[in-house]
Amino acid sequence: MAKEKKYELRLYVAGNTAKSVTALQNLKKYCEEHLKGQYKIEVIDLLVQPQLAEGDQIFAIPTLVRKVPEPIRKIIGDLSNEEKVLVGLDIRTA
Amino acid sequence: MSKAKEQKMNEKYPTLPKTPTGITGLDEITGGGIPKGRPTLVCGDAGCGKTLMSLEFIIRGAIDFGEPGVFMAFEEKTDELAMNVASLGFDLDKLQEEKKIKLDHVHIDRSEIEETGEYDLEGLFIRLNYAIDSIGAKRVVLDTLENLFSSLTNEAVLRAELRRLFHWLKDKGVTAIITGERGEGKLTRQGLEEYVSDCVILLDHRVINQISTRRLRIVKYRGSVHGTNEYPFLIDEEGISVFPVTSLKLEKPVSSERIKSGILALDKMLDGKGFFKGSSILVSGTAGTGKTSIAAYFANQTCSEGNKCIYFAFEESPNQIIRNMHSIGVNLQQYVDKGLLKFFASRPTLYGLEMHLVAMYKTIKKFKPQSVVLDPITNLITVCSVSEVKSMLIRLIDFLQEEQITVMFTALTLNTIISDQTDEGVSSLVDAWLLVRDIEYNGERNRGMYIMKSRGMKHSNQVREFVITDKGLDLVEVYLGPDGVLTGSAREAQILHEQTGEVLRDYAYDRKDREISRKRKVLEAKISSLQTEFESIEEELNKVSQEEELVKQVAEKTRAEITQRRGEKG
Questions:
Q1: Contacts by B391-394, CB closer than 8 A, 24 or more apart
Q2: Residues B463 and B492 in one domain
Q3: pTM (global) more than 0.80
Q4: Residue A43, pLDDT above cutoff 50
Q5: Domain stops at, among B431, B446, B477
């Protein structure tokens, strides 16, 4: 199910909370499984860079933002449901 | 009583610190503002002014109180907000540049968000925290936080997070306003009132008889005295103004200073001095009795003394009044030009009664007149019920007395017994009540005026005839004839009749005088003739006696001669 396009993903977290850690682990796992070599993950800690929250309209933590490809998609939560994440990222059609 | 008690307590213990909102009237109702450092809930239906009120809170804070504020909008975009308040004369962009205000639009699009697994709203906290810290904000508004509920599905998380948010706001020490849509049977759709327990303000927008009125009520204010009534509020080019319409106390200052009515004869009826300053005067009468003329005279008098007057016209347009008053020799235009007289004409149906009150209140506050004319209050009835008009007028009179402004109402009475007794029920409230009424007699209609009451002064109990001429208004004493009160031409006729009588009487006197003098002359003539007669008789008598004397002398002489001759011979 791999796609040719490159994925730019951004994960917003706030410190090392359990949810953030889970979300990052989940994300890495899914990406390795489905998007090997085509993705880039950027983790932004809002405790360090709070000014970035406004730009991507972040209000919930953790939030995964798919910057590329357009349109922007957001997935909030610890990404524990693999199906939902993949559908949300348009990696797999529902 | 309890209020006094509480006030006493307030003196003893530190009171709840408050943050003034800067919104006209709201701070008066809340006794100084909303609780400092705590969240306040402003709720109401769509379009009732929540966003504007909260935004004004932020703007006023930034401009008037030097407290920067963060406005977090969940509904409108920041540029939309800026545009909305630009009409009120606030430049949000400039304030943002000056770092006095920070607008943050939280955009939540249901379509581009997927939820999976656990999350919290820490992002919102961080964002808010960042916004607050970046400008050192003291005030925060979260404009419709409930939008979160429509965007996110995990209600349990949301509720927990909201609770945390309010605690966090308190810890942060910012004074916050949270707005919420009104829900069915609840203050807010999502029950935000559960979380915000310090102060809840309810806004309302009601349409009664096709006229809408915005109202505000403080549902709860923990730890503070506050007005509990529904207060109307107005949104106009200066933002929101709330009118704390009922003052609970009757502790108004009074003045024994007098103010002239403009009609000399009327002043004479009022102890020769006129009305009390700061009193309320009701002029009532049937249609066409000259109520407006009396009111215009009063306004004219105020202005001619160099004082300011506002004329609230609910029936005629200002130009119409000015033109009409020209016909009785009152030139109001000159005072309008000088800025002493201000007309404020509005149709009663323009907006609700409360709105009228607020509008009047604002105008009066701004213009600071010495006297106010309301012409006529009866027209307000078209807007709502008598009792509402009454309560509105009570509040208006209250307010005017507080400001020491003399007010003259005119009221139209219908030719019924009921309305003659109560004119919108204000007759008991006013200090002086002039009644102008028709006196129909002998095929013509005249105006009679009398003073029904005038508190605190000696006043005439006489009915005067009220005449309107080219030269102006005047009061004429009515003629009290044997047939009762006479007015108009009947009075004139009676006066004429009296004058004729007088002339006749005078003539009769003259004739008698002449008669006497003639008689005297006759008698005098008689006397003189008698005298002449007497003289002639006297002369006759004299003549006889002289003749006799002469005879006697001659006889004696002759006898003596004879004797002598005899002696010579003998």
A1: B392/B245, B392/B353, B392/B354, B392/B356, B392/B357, B393/B424, B393/B426, B393/B429, B394/B246, B394/B426, B394/B429
A2: no
A3: no
A4: yes
A5: B477
